[in-house]
Specification:
D-Maltodextrin-Binding Protein, domain 2, 5-stranded mixed β-sheet, 12 helices, elongated
Length: 301
Protein backbone atom coordinates (compact mmCIF):
# COMPACT_ATOMS: atom_id res chain seq x y z
CA UNK A 1 0.00 0.00 0.00
CA UNK A 2 1.45 3.38 -1.03
CA UNK A 3 1.91 5.89 1.75
CA UNK A 4 0.47 9.33 1.14
CA UNK A 5 2.89 12.17 1.80
CA UNK A 6 1.36 14.96 3.86
CA UNK A 7 2.98 18.35 3.36
CA UNK A 8 3.58 20.41 6.49
CA UNK A 9 3.87 24.21 6.57
CA UNK A 10 7.64 24.15 6.09
CA UNK A 11 7.30 21.85 3.06
CA UNK A 12 4.74 24.18 1.51
CA UNK A 13 6.89 27.23 2.25
CA UNK A 14 9.98 25.58 0.80
CA UNK A 15 8.13 24.65 -2.42
CA UNK A 16 6.96 28.24 -2.89
CA UNK A 17 10.35 29.76 -2.07
CA UNK A 18 12.25 27.25 -4.25
CA UNK A 19 10.05 28.13 -7.23
CA UNK A 20 10.78 31.80 -6.63
CA UNK A 21 14.52 31.18 -6.32
CA UNK A 22 14.56 29.28 -9.62
CA UNK A 23 13.95 32.61 -11.33
CA UNK A 24 17.02 34.27 -9.79
CA UNK A 25 20.52 34.49 -11.21
CA UNK A 26 23.79 34.41 -9.28
CA UNK A 27 24.28 37.81 -7.65
CA UNK A 28 20.56 38.62 -7.51
CA UNK A 29 19.06 39.91 -4.28
CA UNK A 30 16.90 37.41 -2.38
CA UNK A 31 13.67 38.75 -0.93
CA UNK A 32 13.67 39.39 2.79
CA UNK A 33 11.98 37.15 5.34
CA UNK A 34 9.22 39.74 5.69
CA UNK A 35 8.68 39.91 1.92
CA UNK A 36 8.30 36.12 1.69
CA UNK A 37 6.12 36.10 4.82
CA UNK A 38 3.72 38.63 3.28
CA UNK A 39 3.80 37.27 -0.28
CA UNK A 40 3.17 33.62 0.57
CA UNK A 41 1.25 34.09 3.84
CA UNK A 42 3.87 32.23 5.88
CA UNK A 43 5.16 32.70 9.41
CA UNK A 44 8.65 34.08 10.02
CA UNK A 45 9.69 30.75 11.53
CA UNK A 46 8.46 28.84 8.48
CA UNK A 47 10.47 31.07 6.11
CA UNK A 48 13.61 30.62 8.24
CA UNK A 49 13.20 26.83 8.35
CA UNK A 50 12.55 26.65 4.59
CA UNK A 51 15.77 28.55 3.83
CA UNK A 52 17.68 26.45 6.33
CA UNK A 53 16.55 23.28 4.53
CA UNK A 54 17.38 24.71 1.11
CA UNK A 55 20.88 25.68 2.23
CA UNK A 56 21.58 22.44 4.10
CA UNK A 57 20.51 20.41 1.05
CA UNK A 58 23.03 22.26 -1.13
CA UNK A 59 20.33 23.79 -3.33
CA UNK A 60 21.50 27.37 -2.65
CA UNK A 61 24.18 29.45 -0.98
CA UNK A 62 23.47 32.98 0.24
CA UNK A 63 25.69 35.85 1.32
CA UNK A 64 24.83 38.95 3.33
CA UNK A 65 25.40 42.29 1.60
CA UNK A 66 24.71 44.75 4.40
CA UNK A 67 21.65 46.94 3.92
CA UNK A 68 21.13 45.38 0.48
CA UNK A 69 20.13 42.14 2.18
CA UNK A 70 21.20 38.69 0.98
CA UNK A 71 22.29 37.71 -2.52
CA UNK A 72 22.40 34.28 -4.09
CA UNK A 73 26.00 33.13 -4.67
CA UNK A 74 25.25 29.57 -5.79
CA UNK A 75 22.25 27.56 -6.89
CA UNK A 76 21.81 23.97 -7.99
CA UNK A 77 19.05 24.07 -10.53
CA UNK A 78 18.50 20.31 -10.28
CA UNK A 79 18.10 20.43 -6.48
CA UNK A 80 15.89 23.52 -6.62
CA UNK A 81 13.67 21.79 -9.16
CA UNK A 82 13.37 18.84 -6.76
CA UNK A 83 12.57 21.10 -3.81
CA UNK A 84 10.08 23.06 -5.95
CA UNK A 85 8.27 19.78 -6.72
CA UNK A 86 7.77 20.62 -10.37
CA UNK A 87 5.92 17.46 -11.35
CA UNK A 88 5.77 18.12 -15.06
CA UNK A 89 5.74 20.75 -17.79
CA UNK A 90 3.57 20.50 -20.90
CA UNK A 91 4.37 22.21 -24.19
CA UNK A 92 2.23 22.28 -27.32
CA UNK A 93 3.48 22.20 -30.90
CA UNK A 94 2.34 21.13 -34.38
CA UNK A 95 1.92 17.43 -35.08
CA UNK A 96 5.47 16.04 -35.58
CA UNK A 97 4.85 14.74 -39.10
CA UNK A 98 8.16 16.08 -40.42
CA UNK A 99 11.70 15.20 -39.40
CA UNK A 100 12.32 18.86 -38.57
CA UNK A 101 9.46 18.87 -36.04
CA UNK A 102 10.58 15.49 -34.70
CA UNK A 103 14.08 16.85 -34.15
CA UNK A 104 12.78 19.91 -32.32
CA UNK A 105 10.50 17.83 -30.08
CA UNK A 106 13.27 15.33 -29.34
CA UNK A 107 15.76 18.05 -28.38
CA UNK A 108 13.42 20.00 -26.11
CA UNK A 109 12.21 16.92 -24.26
CA UNK A 110 15.75 15.61 -23.81
CA UNK A 111 17.02 18.86 -22.25
CA UNK A 112 14.13 19.09 -19.79
CA UNK A 113 14.50 15.47 -18.70
CA UNK A 114 18.24 15.97 -18.16
CA UNK A 115 17.33 18.62 -15.58
CA UNK A 116 15.00 16.25 -13.75
CA UNK A 117 11.73 17.68 -15.06
CA UNK A 118 9.04 15.37 -16.40
CA UNK A 119 8.15 16.91 -19.74
CA UNK A 120 5.30 16.18 -22.14
CA UNK A 121 4.27 17.49 -25.53
CA UNK A 122 0.72 17.94 -26.74
CA UNK A 123 0.23 18.20 -30.49
CA UNK A 124 -2.22 20.60 -32.07
CA UNK A 125 -2.47 22.05 -35.56
CA UNK A 126 -3.03 25.78 -36.04
CA UNK A 127 -1.01 28.44 -34.24
CA UNK A 128 -4.16 30.38 -33.35
CA UNK A 129 -5.61 27.39 -31.53
CA UNK A 130 -2.30 26.75 -29.73
CA UNK A 131 -2.22 30.40 -28.63
CA UNK A 132 -5.79 30.20 -27.33
CA UNK A 133 -5.01 27.08 -25.27
CA UNK A 134 -1.85 28.71 -23.94
CA UNK A 135 -3.72 31.81 -22.76
CA UNK A 136 -6.31 29.62 -21.06
CA UNK A 137 -3.56 27.95 -19.04
CA UNK A 138 -3.93 24.50 -20.63
CA UNK A 139 -0.24 24.42 -21.64
CA UNK A 140 2.93 25.94 -20.16
CA UNK A 141 4.39 27.05 -23.49
CA UNK A 142 3.72 26.80 -27.21
CA UNK A 143 5.90 26.44 -30.28
CA UNK A 144 5.07 28.33 -33.46
CA UNK A 145 6.84 30.27 -36.20
CA UNK A 146 8.19 33.74 -35.56
CA UNK A 147 5.82 34.98 -38.28
CA UNK A 148 2.78 33.47 -36.55
CA UNK A 149 3.75 35.09 -33.26
CA UNK A 150 4.35 38.50 -34.87
CA UNK A 151 1.22 38.37 -37.01
CA UNK A 152 -1.11 37.55 -34.12
CA UNK A 153 0.29 40.24 -31.78
CA UNK A 154 -2.05 38.94 -29.08
CA UNK A 155 -2.05 40.62 -25.71
CA UNK A 156 -1.03 38.29 -22.92
CA UNK A 157 1.47 36.20 -24.89
CA UNK A 158 5.25 36.66 -24.87
CA UNK A 159 8.08 35.22 -26.98
CA UNK A 160 10.91 33.97 -24.78
CA UNK A 161 13.18 32.03 -27.14
CA UNK A 162 13.94 31.72 -30.86
CA UNK A 163 15.85 28.86 -32.51
CA UNK A 164 17.15 30.58 -35.63
CA UNK A 165 16.75 30.10 -39.41
CA UNK A 166 15.09 26.92 -40.70
CA UNK A 167 14.36 25.56 -37.22
CA UNK A 168 10.60 25.45 -37.92
CA UNK A 169 10.42 24.72 -41.66
CA UNK A 170 12.93 24.96 -44.50
CA UNK A 171 10.71 26.70 -47.07
CA UNK A 172 7.16 27.26 -48.33
CA UNK A 173 6.13 26.39 -51.88
CA UNK A 174 3.06 26.57 -54.12
CA UNK A 175 1.47 23.23 -55.02
CA UNK A 176 -0.83 22.24 -57.85
CA UNK A 177 -1.91 18.96 -59.40
CA UNK A 178 -0.13 18.14 -62.66
CA UNK A 179 -2.48 18.84 -65.54
CA UNK A 180 -4.48 21.36 -63.50
CA UNK A 181 -2.03 24.25 -63.21
CA UNK A 182 -4.46 26.91 -64.49
CA UNK A 183 -7.18 26.49 -61.87
CA UNK A 184 -7.86 29.40 -59.51
CA UNK A 185 -9.44 27.76 -56.44
CA UNK A 186 -6.92 28.39 -53.65
CA UNK A 187 -6.86 26.34 -50.47
CA UNK A 188 -6.60 28.49 -47.32
CA UNK A 189 -6.46 27.46 -43.66
CA UNK A 190 -7.62 30.21 -41.29
CA UNK A 191 -6.26 28.36 -38.26
CA UNK A 192 -2.72 28.31 -39.67
CA UNK A 193 -1.29 31.82 -39.40
CA UNK A 194 1.59 31.13 -41.81
CA UNK A 195 -0.47 29.39 -44.47
CA UNK A 196 -3.21 32.03 -44.27
CA UNK A 197 -0.73 34.91 -44.44
CA UNK A 198 1.19 33.49 -47.41
CA UNK A 199 -2.00 32.67 -49.30
CA UNK A 200 -3.54 36.11 -48.88
CA UNK A 201 -0.26 37.88 -49.70
CA UNK A 202 0.70 35.80 -52.72
CA UNK A 203 -2.74 35.90 -54.34
CA UNK A 204 -3.83 39.41 -53.29
CA UNK A 205 -3.48 40.84 -56.82
CA UNK A 206 -4.58 37.68 -58.63
CA UNK A 207 -8.05 36.62 -59.67
CA UNK A 208 -8.90 33.63 -57.52
CA UNK A 209 -11.40 31.98 -55.20
CA UNK A 210 -10.35 31.05 -51.67
CA UNK A 211 -11.61 27.71 -50.40
CA UNK A 212 -11.38 27.06 -46.65
CA UNK A 213 -9.55 23.82 -45.88
CA UNK A 214 -7.47 22.13 -43.21
CA UNK A 215 -3.81 22.40 -44.24
CA UNK A 216 -3.30 18.76 -43.19
CA UNK A 217 -5.43 17.74 -46.18
CA UNK A 218 -3.93 19.93 -48.91
CA UNK A 219 -2.50 17.12 -51.04
CA UNK A 220 -5.69 15.05 -50.72
CA UNK A 221 -7.79 18.12 -51.58
CA UNK A 222 -5.67 18.73 -54.68
CA UNK A 223 -6.08 15.13 -55.80
CA UNK A 224 -9.82 15.15 -55.09
CA UNK A 225 -10.32 18.32 -57.14
CA UNK A 226 -11.57 20.36 -54.17
CA UNK A 227 -8.85 22.99 -54.73
CA UNK A 228 -6.48 23.81 -57.58
CA UNK A 229 -3.55 25.34 -55.70
CA UNK A 230 -2.28 25.78 -52.15
CA UNK A 231 0.79 26.88 -50.27
CA UNK A 232 2.51 24.38 -47.98
CA UNK A 233 5.87 23.91 -46.28
CA UNK A 234 8.21 21.80 -48.37
CA UNK A 235 9.03 19.73 -45.28
CA UNK A 236 5.47 18.39 -45.24
CA UNK A 237 5.67 17.70 -48.96
CA UNK A 238 8.80 15.60 -48.54
CA UNK A 239 6.94 13.26 -46.18
CA UNK A 240 4.43 12.33 -48.91
CA UNK A 241 4.55 10.55 -52.27
CA UNK A 242 3.94 13.47 -54.60
CA UNK A 243 4.96 12.46 -58.11
CA UNK A 244 1.67 13.91 -59.36
CA UNK A 245 2.19 17.31 -57.69
CA UNK A 246 3.82 20.41 -59.20
CA UNK A 247 6.07 22.38 -56.84
CA UNK A 248 6.70 26.07 -57.50
CA UNK A 249 9.02 28.39 -55.58
CA UNK A 250 7.38 31.53 -54.19
CA UNK A 251 8.85 34.83 -53.00
CA UNK A 252 6.98 36.66 -50.22
CA UNK A 253 8.01 39.31 -47.69
CA UNK A 254 8.56 37.84 -44.22
CA UNK A 255 9.10 34.39 -45.66
CA UNK A 256 12.19 33.83 -43.52
CA UNK A 257 10.23 34.62 -40.34
CA UNK A 258 7.98 31.66 -41.09
CA UNK A 259 11.01 29.37 -41.11
CA UNK A 260 12.09 30.07 -37.52
CA UNK A 261 10.62 28.26 -34.50
CA UNK A 262 9.95 30.30 -31.36
CA UNK A 263 8.69 29.45 -27.88
CA UNK A 264 5.94 31.63 -26.46
CA UNK A 265 4.46 31.70 -22.96
CA UNK A 266 1.58 33.36 -21.20
CA UNK A 267 2.73 36.81 -20.10
CA UNK A 268 3.55 36.87 -16.41
CA UNK A 269 4.50 33.20 -16.14
CA UNK A 270 7.97 34.05 -14.81
CA UNK A 271 8.74 30.54 -13.59
CA UNK A 272 8.26 28.94 -17.01
CA UNK A 273 10.11 31.84 -18.66
CA UNK A 274 13.08 31.29 -16.35
CA UNK A 275 13.12 27.52 -16.86
CA UNK A 276 12.89 27.83 -20.65
CA UNK A 277 15.75 30.32 -20.78
CA UNK A 278 17.92 28.34 -18.34
CA UNK A 279 17.34 24.83 -19.68
CA UNK A 280 16.77 25.14 -23.42
CA UNK A 281 20.18 25.84 -24.89
CA UNK A 282 19.63 26.87 -28.51
CA UNK A 283 22.90 25.43 -29.83
CA UNK A 284 22.21 22.02 -28.25
CA UNK A 285 18.67 21.96 -29.63
CA UNK A 286 19.78 22.78 -33.17
CA UNK A 287 22.52 20.13 -33.01
CA UNK A 288 20.02 17.46 -31.92
CA UNK A 289 17.54 18.58 -34.57
CA UNK A 290 20.21 18.28 -37.27
CA UNK A 291 21.10 14.77 -36.09
CA UNK A 292 17.46 13.73 -36.38
CA UNK A 293 17.24 15.32 -39.84
CA UNK A 294 20.38 13.45 -40.92
CA UNK A 295 19.04 10.21 -39.38
CA UNK A 296 22.04 10.00 -37.04
CA UNK A 297 19.76 9.52 -34.04
CA UNK A 298 16.27 8.10 -33.62
CA UNK A 299 13.69 10.74 -32.60
CA UNK A 300 12.26 10.25 -29.10
CA UNK A 301 9.53 12.57 -27.92
Amino acid sequence: MNRIRVLNKVDIGMIKIARDLLMLEIGDRVKSTKEYKDEFNLSVGTVHKAFEELELSGAIKLQKKGAFGKVITYKSQELLIQKAELKHIVGVMPLPYTKRYEGLATAIKELFIKKGISFYFAYMQGSRIRTKMLKEGVYDFAIMSRLAYSAQAIEGVKKVLGFGPNSYVSDHVLLSLKGNELGNRIGIDKNSEDQYYFSTQYFKDKECEFVEINSDNIIKNLRDGIIDKAILSIDELEENLVSDINVEKIDIVDKNNANEAVIVIKTGNELIESLVNDILDVESIINIQKKVLNKEIVPRY
